[in-house]
Each structure stands twice: as C-alpha cells, then as structure tokens.
Write a structure and sequence with these properties.
By secondary structure, this protein is an alpha+beta fold. The chain is 47% helix and 22% strand. Strands 6, 7, 8, 9 and 10 form a five-stranded antiparallel sheet that branches. α7 crosses α9. It is extended and about 100 Å long.
Length: 443
C-alpha cells in the first residue's frame, strides 16, 4: 500500500492511498466465492458454480462491497503508516481507476494542533472575598416575601407595582388587526412587559374607567406589519389590585420549611444559602480567570471539523430547550441559530478542551474518584430521594461521564492555581452575583 501526504491550509491534511490490484482482486474473489456457496444459478448445483459465472453475475456488487470494506480497513492503516492523528471524520473520495489497476482514494481531514504549553507559571487570579451582611439577608427575605405576594382589589387610582385587569381593542386606520384585541388581561404596572404607551396610560386610573389611547409600536416590533405604526386603543380598566406581601408569621415560615426558631431560624437558613451561592460564584470567577489566562497564554489553531461538531452540539442544546413545535424544521432552526452566532463560543470550547487535555497529559493528572463521589452526593442532595438519584446517575454512563469531566476540570483549575499569582479582593455579594451590572472583584 502506497500512502502520500499533502499539507493543506492550517490543520487540514490530505492523504492519497493506493491499494495494490492483487489485494483488491483477491478480496473480490473471496467475496464472490462466499456468495457462490449459497447462490442458485440455473444449470449448476449450489456450491459448484464456476468462478467465471459467479463473477459475471455477482462481480459488480462484490467489487462495490469490497471497495467500501478496503477503504474502511486501509484508512487507519494509512494513518499509522504516515503517523497522523485525525480530528474528526475524514472526507473520502474514490479516485477513478480502471479494473485491474487496484484502488485509489483520497481522505481529507483535520489534525490536532501541536501544543507546547506556555505561561502556566505566569497566570494571575483575583479571588473575590465576600462577607454575608445583615443587609444581604434582609434583601433576600424581602425578595422571598415578594415572590409570595398576593394582589387584593382596591378602590383608589392605580400606581406602579399594582396589577390591573383590562379589556382592549386596537385599531389602525379604523380597522382592527390580528393580536390587537384581548379580554381580562392582567398587567403589573412598572414591569415594562406591556406596550410602553399603553402601560403608561394605565397608571392613575380607577376600576370602571374606559378611555382611548394612541399607542406607537417600536420600529423593531416583532410583527413587521405593525412595526413603527400607531394604533388607537379602546381600553376598559376592570380592576385595580395592590400587592400584599406575607408577614413573617408562623404560618408563612412553615411554608418556607421553618418549623422552629421563628425569624432567627429563617435568617440563619438564608445566610447559609447565600454563603453557598457566594462560594459557588467565587469558584466560577476563579475558574473563568484561569481559563481565560490559559487561552491568552496559549493561542492555538483549532480543527475546523471539531468546531463544526461543537456548533452542532450547541445548536442541539438550544433546540432541546425550545417548544416541540419549534424542533420540527431543521432548516428553520439553522436560520434561527446560524453558525456565526455560535462560532466564537464553539472555538473557545474546542480550544479549552484541547488545552485542558494537554495540561492533564503533561501534569499526569488522574481522576480523583473521591471527588466524583462527593460531587454526586452534592447533586443528589438537591433532591428528596438522594439515594435513588445517586443510583440513577450511576446507571447512566453518559451522565457519570459528565460528572467526571466536571471534576477533572476542577482538578485542572486547582493544579493551575497552585502555580498562579493569587490576590484577594473584597467584594459585595451583589457585585459578585451580578458582575455585568456592577464593578468589584470577579467582574
């Protein structure tokens, strides 16, 4: 077998493989003979059919099958012969060749980049430090009360924060339009989830009022036939209700799982929860900084085939979160989630995967099974039947592989931090949990 290699652009490689005619013809003969053992040809007994006759009847189909089988077996042989490790599936093309001249094919594929890790001892990390304050606890408790609020009817004029019930009919040039009419719609004023002009017009009104209001649709409104137009809405405000948050009494505390200890027990439970959230956010911040530092110190080419596979995986992840009716048209989904929306994140994921694998190899890191068990315990603790959850995970190899990958990634981060320059910086809980909206450590 003759193998030649051509280097294409970047990480792309092309090999040309020439299979000797003897190997091909021998394989075809063997295939034809096997078929002939059970073939039925008029004038001949089964198993006694001349090879020439078998070739006439079955030679073409046998050669087709043999060609596929030889390519499948010869491809890994050729890779070993030229010492190449492909990343992803090859694009195979069969070359035109006359019968008796053997078989030739080309295979195009990406190879893994050669990685020499740099700058691991120069990584710099800022670790946020957070104290859980009474103010953080107060804020969280108020949020919990707000989540359990009810709305009670009032006779006064509506205010921001109130919930109003309305009927409305919209018209453009005197004609109603699709989606422009509804009854018994509940709108919470101030949330900004309604058409701005219409929501503003609902403030300062009492139950029973009817009125007309012009409403301008934004230029980027979802319905193209309405974007940028102004409609006249006839509105009837049927009810005004105000929010009432529950008191921190025994009944409400029981709903929150606090049977003893009253408000003090609730505050301690909230403190523990916030501490866990803060620790998780700190770990995430540190991990992100380590990963960013690893990428910045080690820019690498990434195989295009791996990026394409990652984009498709990301697209499927997004699709799985969509309603079933939106998952039926693959072409529409590709338009909704085009490659250019995914490519940057996909390249980052592939780059990190290759770099982390190299760190694991160079540092000879081995999976810590005790940490895997601890991670599984942590996941199972979030559910009522923890033992059943653990058994289920252990029965699902793919899910366990996900946990193992998560733990291995944590081990890599821990190892790299040992060499990194680590500084601590005080941060508020709010800045830590909302880095995009506030400065401070971890932003």
């Amino acid at each position: 077998m003759e193998v030649s290699v051509e280097s294409a652009e970047g990480l792309q490689r092309r090999i040309r493989v020439q299979i000797p005619a003897e190997r091909v013809e021998q394989a075809v003969d063997e295939k034809v003979r096997r078929v002939g053992q059970h073939a039925k040809v008029p004038g001949f007994r089964p198993g006694k059919i001349p090879l020439k006759v078998l070739h006439q009847r079955y030679g073409e189909s046998a050669r087709h099958e043999v060609t596929s089988e030889i390519i499948q077996s010869a491809y890994p042989e050729a890779l070993a012969q030229v010492d190449l490790k492909p990343a992803g599936q090859p694009r195979v093309e069969l070359a035109d060749q006359a019968e008796g001249q053997g078989l030739a094919f080309t295979a195009e594929f990406d190879v893994y980049p050669e990685i020499e890790l740099q700058g691991l001892d120069k990584l710099s990390v800022t670790r946020p430090t957070v104290e859980i304050t009474d103010g953080d606890i107060d804020k969280t408790i108020e949020q919990v009360r707000d989540q359990h609020k009810t709305f009670e009817p009032v006779e006064r004029e509506s205010l921001d924060g109130d919930q109003v019930t309305v009927d409305y009919v919209g018209r453009i040039d005197g004609e109603t339009f699709e989606g422009g009419s509804s009854e018994d719609i509940e709108v919470t004023l101030g949330e900004g989830r309604f058409l701005p002009d219409l929501e503003r017009a609902l403030v300062g009104r009492k139950a029973g009022e009817s009125f007309e209001v012009p409403v301008s649709f934004p230029e980027d409104y979802g319905a193209e036939d309405l974007a940028g137009k102004t409609a006249e809405f006839s509105v009837e405000l049927k009810q005004v209700t105000e929010p009432r948050r529950p008191e921190l009494d025994d009944e409400f505390l029981a709903k929150l799982g606090i049977e003893e200890g009253g408000e003090a027990a609730l505050r301690e439970k909230v403190r523990e929860s916030l501490r866990q959230q803060a620790d998780d956010a700190i770990a995430k911040s540190v991990k992100t900084q380590v990963m960013n530092g690893l990428l910045e110190a080690n820019p690498i080419d990434v195989p295009g085939s791996m990026v394409s596979e990652e984009m498709e995986r990301m697209r499927q992840e997004a699709v799985s979160r969509m309603p079933p009716q939106m998952q039926e048209n693959p072409e529409q989904l590709r338009e909704m989630i085009p490659d250019d929306m995914l490519s940057d994140d996909a390249k980052r994921r592939v780059s990190l995967g290759l770099l982390l694998a190299e760190v694991i190899k160079v540092k000879e890191l081995e999976l810590d099974n005790a940490r895997v068990d601890a991670k599984l315990e942590e996941i199972a603790a979030q559910y009522g039947e923890a033992e059943q959850v653990k058994q289920y995970y252990r029965s699902q190899p793919q899910m366990m592989q996900g946990i193992q990958a998560m733990v291995m990634e944590e081990q890599v981060v821990d190892d790299l931090i040992q060499q990194a320059s680590v500084a601590e910086e005080a941060s508020s809980l709010d800045a830590l949990m909302n880095p995009d909206n506030a400065g401070g450590a971890g932003a």
